[in-house]
Amino acid sequence: MRLPAARPTAVAALALAATAVVAPPAHSADGDDYRVTLTSSTAATDYENRTVDLTGTVTRPDGTPVADAPVQLEESVLYNTWNPWGDPIDPTEWETRGLGSVRTDAEGRFTLEDVPADRADARPSPYLFPRHQVMFRAVYDTDPTDLHMALADTTVKVKPVTSLITYQVNKTKVRKGDTLVVKGRIAWPGGHGPLTGTRVFLRTYYESSQNAQTTTDALGNFTVRAKIRDYDNEFVVFSAPKDYYIAGASRDLPVKNVTP
Question: Using CA atoms, how far apart are residues 196 and 202, in angstroms rounded to an integer?
Answer without folding.
Answer: 18
